[in-house]
Amino acid sequence: xxxxxxxxxxxxxxxxxxxxxxxxxxxxxxxxxxxxxxxxxxxxxxxxxxxxxxxxxxxxxxxxxxxxxxxxxxxxxxxxxxxxxxxxxxxxxxxxxxxxxxxxxxxxxxxxxxxxxxxxxxxxxxxxxxxxxxxxxxxxxxxxxxxxxxxxxxxxxxxxxxxxxxxxxxxxxxxxxxxxxxxxxxxxxxxxxxxxxxxxxxxxxxxxxxxxxxxxxxxxxxxxxxxxxxxxxxxxxxxxxxxxxxxxxxxxxxxxxxxxxxxxxxxxxxxxxxxxxxxxxxxxxxxxxxxxxxxxxxxxxxxxxxxxxxxxxxxxxxxxxxxxxxxxxxxxxxxxxxxxxxxxxxxxxxxxxxxxxxxxxxxxxxxxxxxxxxxxxxxxxxxxxxxxxxxxxxxxxxxxxxxxxxxxxxxxxxxxxxxxxxxxxxxxxxxxxxxxxxxxxxxxxxxxxxxxxxxxxxxxxxxxxxxxxxxxxxxxxxxxxxxxxxxxxxxxxxxxxxxxxxxxxxxxxxxxxxxxxxxxxxxxxxxxxxxxxxxxxxxxxxxxxxxxxxxxxxxxxxxxxxxxxxxxxxxxxxxxxxxxxxxxxxxxxxxxxxxxxxxxxxxxxxxxxxxxxxxxxxxxxxxxxxxxxxxxxxxxxxxxxxxxxxxxxxxxxxxxxxxxxxxxxxxxxxxxxxxxxxxxxxxxxxxxxxxxxxxxxxxxxxxxxxxxxxxxxxxxxxxxxxxxxxxxxxxxxxxxxxxxxxxxxxxxxxxxxxxxxxxxxxxxxxxxxxxxxxxxxxxxxxxxxxxxxxxxxxxxxxxxxxxxxxxxxxxxxxxxxxxxxxxxxxxxxxxxxxxxxxxxxxxxxxxxxxxxxxxxxxxxxxxxxxxxxxxxxxxxxxxxxxxxxxxxxxxxxxxxx
Length: 897
Hints:
alpha+beta; 18 helices
């Protein structure tokens, strides 16, 4: 009774305040998310994270207070009644909170709404309520894990079916299914969901993921059928790989468990479980490998197998299987979907049985074959990034690794056998590839044209959040190529290349991390990947070089220069999103990792790792570069400990970081010459980038770096680690024009050299001719982040993460006439755009509501700068030389260049 009275009183307040709605149309909380997703299903935490953005058409608009209400009823939430939780009015500008109401129930939809007040006391509410839906929570699984009982070496994929009867009208129906392997689910013949390669890859003996599906509209009164096809994925790896997935301790025939909860309109309910009453058979998918391809014999199809009324007398009953892992976690992240489609491809007829199709760009994805032909015709769809002199797909960069089973498991090749019954379509279910070309090879003459092949880009469906344009077309193309490379290597975790490895190389991922987070809303993928880190970490704190792994990578390539993902990823996510959850989830693992490095270091230095991988020419000192990452790890851990209130740890690791810095400088810094080690580009830019150069020597080292770059013909001479530090070390120390020269070179070695030679994605090495090169690698992608941080000048204020305070510090490089970035941060859109006009730079800045910015401009006389028409004399900088900008739009003139 008390709860009802309180609810009524708060609603009354909201009703009275609604009179402000017309006034406050320029101040609205929108883009509501739970767990960083829109309308997520399967939420399994009792304290889900809720966030929103303030949208306003007025300048200097700030949130002064908020209130959140939660209800199980859409009707109640629309009336402003929060019968599950009412936060009350909280005076805060925060737009990111945790639910703190009564314990959430499993398998329940909760609606929620946000009310906000601005600094003038005006109140507004989100125009639409949002919702999230809990998963099974702590509810135990009642379903049985089932499989077809076959051996791991059996190649055809298992099909499963279950008939059941629905006697009443269904109000709600949900399927929860945990899977080891990959699943395609159907109800009454309809595929459920628009996702591919579900669930995501984990270390199956430590963690399995379950999926949640709304199937309310797929059911009908009377007979119904559940259909399941299981793919091998990484669970039953049947191909050969250097990295040993075929020998994984978890390897087994794919298996799943499933629970279908039915709620009827009359208030009753029913549950359908996976059990031994289900039936199974082998079907037309005669082979599937996440690594190589999929083989499909259409002659083996059984029409109607997933519809009611199908005669399954020849199907056998399933067997019960042991649980692969007792740790079954809901998959709450952006899934893999088709995100782009390529039709009417250019094609060439090589002869009457071979055709070559060309895409406009290199992608990761799949192809659909649409064909009509003679029964038994065998079609091979061979995918590749390049073609040879004979106009055939060239897979030499893959073939050097393995001849898959003597040609029976060809790399990047799907095989389809026609049934010969009119127009047929084939598209693989359980594989993806990296390619720009598709070679169609038939075992007999066929007539094909541009309509016979459609290509699809598939990747984790993370939202693009940025736009970049400049007067230098090469800059635009490098940015586009970096983005293509990133999404080509995002399939539930960040990978190195889509065509031959698909491995979660740690170093590749953290080097390109800032580029990723400036361009895509990818937090859910990285949160999942950090759980993979926790699964992979040994008791002594060691991490492998690739994650997930079946055991490879603990003895090679896993020094701190690579596996510092354990700290770099959580820290970067925290800075970009302002969300401490990822720090809390991984804190103990971070400590274990840094303590492990300490245990194997000597005199606070370590050379365990790969160093400046795939350099152009100069081999940088490994111990120097790897010890810099050790220093960074200790420093970050100290900062994270302070944020989490672990003051003792913070002091311990701060002290450690200072000792590492002293050891590095003591061994490698030549103070007289102002160089580290031999003075190569990587050896000089690394200490500058990580901030270990002692006071009084920083400019001297920067000058030496610039001199070295000039001596190197204004081209880069670095590998992977140096590519992270070189441009920023130059531009942060007065050499932005030289950095831009390096970034936009078109001759070897450079990013532009790739583009000039037809690249639409980034490559694995500076050399193009090498036989081992992958042409879709994101690891050299830091340059894209440099465009944002330096040319656009959009940077994070570490003391106010999540872009609560934005640092704007653009560099107006002399050889660029126009540059613009639009970046949708977690707080709203940030725009930094500048144009050079004669001796004047015109800078347009947009700061989102509920934030402020610190603008740093070139140091010139006060009469040379105006902000919105006012000279610098009237708009004075703050003590650190910055101009404090409230939310709004600004036009700035800088008369310098």
